[in-house]
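Hi F.,

I've been meaning to write this up properly since the lab meeting, where we talked about keeping a consistent format for the predictions we share between groups. The idea is simple: the sequence comes first, exactly as it goes in, then the structure tokens exactly as they come out, then a line or two of notes. No screenshots and no reformatting. I'm using this chain as the first example so we have something concrete to point to.
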Amino acid sequence: MGTGTGTIETHRGIRTNPTPRFEEKFKTITNRFGQKSITLPRIDDKKRLAGYPGNTGISRKLARIIPRCKIFCEPLAGTAKVFQELVKLSPANGYPEQFILNDKSKTVVNWLRREFDSTGYNWFSTKITCTDFRYCIKKYDSKDTVFVIDHPWFKSFYDQVFSCFDRESVIQYDKEILELCNSIKGKFFITTRKENTRMKKSGFRNLFIKSEYVVMDRYPEVLITTNVSGADLE
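Output, unedited:
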């Protein structure tokens, strides 16, 4: 296998291109859950997961415990896996009248607009915006809003020409999100890696959901931090 610029190498048995070529030309794929996602043209040491980060593995389980609300909002939507599961549920269940999908990446927002136009559905509307997550949360906060907040877990996962990591660190994301969640009226579910001690010590309810997707030969657990009571999660 080669090591020069533009040559093909392998990483964990996967053919890779060592230079960041053609990342703006990512493709839309459908995973085994029937969800639309983004696939990348390469994988390397910094980008260990093939595809855009997201809640794929827990999306179906998390969607089933989202309480009834008028507005469902993903302020750091990415490929919006929980939204995709919620829209599969019957409108008779009283699920949201409006979905808000927000991301700071213009490329990702354009992809969301192309893939999830709500034309053809008569029981909900989808609004897709491109603003900072703080502005989005404040704008759509209400007692009838539920937020799913999936902020970056690792900075290296966003080493892509079209994605957006616009804070100093993951710690900064954690602090800003917890600050917001201490003051909002709505319900929220923050999804992070299970080792996140800042979320564990936040004073909010914490639970773990096991992924239905295998990652590196195991089914990882995701930490959910929420202000939804235990009884409401049954």
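Notes:
The chain has one domain: 46-233.
The longest strand covers residues 187-193.

If this format works for you, I'll send the rest the same way.

G.
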